[in-house]
Amino acid sequence: MSSGYLRSVRHPERYHGEGKKPPFFEGWYFKLVDASEPQRWAFIPGIFRSHDPDRQHAFVQVLNGVEGQATYHRYASSAFGAEDAPFRVRVGPSTFSLDEITLYLQGDDLSVDGTLGFRGVSGWPVTALSPGIMGPFGWLPFLQCYHGVLGLDHELSGALTINGRYVDFTGGRGYIEKDWGQAFPSGWVWMQSNHFGRPGTSLTASIAIIPFGPFSFPGFIVGLLVDGHLHRFATHNGSRVEQLSVRERDVVWVLRNKSERLEIHASRAQAALLRGPTTGDMGVRVAESLTATVQVRLTSLRESRLLFEGVGRNAGLEVVGNTERLVRGR
Predict the structure, then answer these.
(1) In this structure, how many other beta carbons lie within 10 angstroms of the beta carbon of residue 171?
(2) Is the pTM above the cut of 0.85?
(3) Which residues pair with 75 in a beta bridge?
(4) DSSP letter assigned to residue 138
């Protein structure tokens, strides 16, 4: 492995596409909710590289979570730029970092202008053996898709002008994650909320079909941040799924690790269609909501004691593709 590859693995926030042959995509996900919570937005800058030059492009995708609408702002691939230290991504006139985002988007359906600052950004811990949320799987150079969680919960400041309306985000909460690789999985469930009754609590949870050579398997990663401690449930740390039910109105998911049991009940809500990558284009239609709710219950197996119970508001929720395979568990 090259020294550049080793550095990029230990910095999941950075751009990973330098020198990569197509197909390749990379996208960063910035979720923003204002203090009083009627404004719920996600801004997704990224790059898509294809064997077909006409399909290569940069983009900023925007999700209006309250109204259930999405817009896609396409740019030439040359409009994309990335810096490592400190991390910074540019798409056209908009810039994105772990400290702030500056947006200037002009379209027929949406215009956004302004700068928001982030304070207290802290992502999934990175160590030599476990470089982020994917654990040791993050070191493997041949996976179809990689995932990173860059900011579990942080405070917002500043304002945006959205379609001519001034929107103050000061005192609101943010969340940051990202994906990169060749294509999205053939099926997955993802959910996230950092709006619980106990401040500083954040849940991020995903299960997806993972291709691995000639085989594939459902792999999952779940983190619940409570009082500064990250409770982890993942395929790579020996956790297991006791139950997964994907129904029209809700998702029920029960997991356990060596010492704890986590029960999740997510209520589905109105969703907007985002675009996601295949190996050919940004052709996957991803239904995502920012108005779902997630009930969470964490108990200690050793002491039969309740560790945390709460309901997450403004929850992101995606249920996409071959979820029957996920439910079967093999």
Answers:
(1) 11
(2) yes
(3) 58
(4) G
Cα–Cα distance, 147 to 180 (Å, whole number): 7
CATH of domain 3-328: 2.40.370.10
Give yes or no for a contact between 160 and 24, defined as CB atoms under 8 angstroms apart: no
Judged against a pLDDT cut of 60, whether residue 1 lies above it is answered with no
Cβ neighbours of residue 16 under 8 Å, at least 6 residues apart?
Answer: 8, 26, 146, 180
Give the whole-angstrom CA distance, residue 250 versus residue 260. Answer: 23
Q: How far is CA 96 from CA 16, 36, 186, in A?
A: 16, 24, 29
The domains of the chain are located at 3-328
Copy the structure tokens of residue 55.
């399909």
pLDDT for the residue 220: 97
- The CA distance from 243 to 216, in Å, is 20
Q: How far apart are CA 296 and CA 253, in angstroms?
A: 10
* DSSP, res 135: G
Q: How far apart are CA 189 and CA 254, in angstroms?
A: 13
- C-alpha to C-alpha distance for 65 and 63, rounded to whole angstroms: 6
Helix H segments across the chain?
A: 3-9, 323-328
Confidence check: pLDDT of 130 > 90: yes
Q: Which of 20, 102, 86, 93 is nearest to 56 (CA)?
A: 20
